[in-house]
Design brief:
The protein is an all-alpha fold and about 220 residues long. The protein has one domain. About 75% of the residues lie in helices and about 0% in strands. The chain has 11 helices and no strands. It is globular. The termini are far apart. Belongs to the EamA transporter family. This is EamA domain-containing protein. Keywords: Membrane, Transmembrane, Transmembrane helix. InterPro entries: AA-Vitamin_Transporters (IPR050638), EamA_dom (IPR000620), EmrE-like (IPR037185).
Length: about 220
């Protein structure tokens, strides 16, 4: 994701990642044979329409290597979805901080190896500006340790596609922060795509409530 952001605006990246619940639903159907509820199917269709509106903008896909960045983000989504299904059922240590630590340690080794293979330049954190250092510290504490541990915890209690709806708020925040601090443009089509996409994910998240309501009404009738 971080690598892809050199080619893709943060708002676009967050909006694309907001389709994560849709990807998990499809994998649950393909890999586990679970039936997708009608309201979830509606949510998937709406989400696909939202993604299409998002990526079809000429001012977004016209940039150099933008499609490469978007392709990398999609691969991240696919691997994240597959791993979420695995973690939800795997026999892992009961300590969720240990689970998070193992995953981050493995990821760190992979990223260091990849960085060396593509010849990236390295620098020490002491050479970075204070704003970068504070941002890194914030991401380590809140974005990684707390958020990722909570994600692993919820995967054992809630269906994976519902846990993935943690991405609801990401597009809105990313678009606003990108506009506020990075002078990124929020187009009308981006705003419409965001509304449509989040509406699709909303349908996925509310399917159980709708099922309970239908059962209640059928009993009364």
């Amino acid at each position: 994701m971080v690598w892809a952001l050199q080619y893709v605006d943060s708002g676009l990246a967050a909006l694309e990642i907001a389709a994560q619940p849709l990807v998990i639903l499809i994998l649950m159907r393909v890999l586990e044979g679970k039936k997708i509820q009608p309201m979830s199917i509606v949510g998937v269709v709406i989400g696909i329409i939202g993604i299409f509106l998002l990526v079809s903008q000429n001012q977004i896909i016209g940039g150099e290597n933008t499609l490469l960045g978007m392709g990398m983000i999609f691969m991240c989504m696919l691997s994240w979805a597959f791993a979420s299904l695995f973690v939800a059922k795997a026999d892992l240590p009961s300590n969720y901080f240990v689970n998070t630590g193992f995953q981050m340690l493995s990821a760190g080794i992979i990223l260091i190896t990849s960085s060396l293979l593509i010849g990236e330049e390295w620098s020490l954190p002491t050479q970075w500006s204070s704003s970068v250092q504070y941002s890194l510290l914030f991401l380590i504490l809140f974005g990684s340790i707390l958020a990722f541990t909570a994600f692993n915890y919820l995967l054992k209690l809630v269906s994976p596609e519902k846990v993935a709806t943690s991405t609801y708020v990401n597009p809105v925040i990313a678009l606003l922060l990108g506009w506020l601090y990075l002078d990124e443009q929020i187009t009308t089509q981006s705003a419409i795509a965001a509304i449509i996409l989040l509406t699709g994910v909303y349908f996925i998240n509310t399917k159980k409530k709708l099922m309970l309501f239908s059962r209640f009404t059928s009993k009364r009738s």
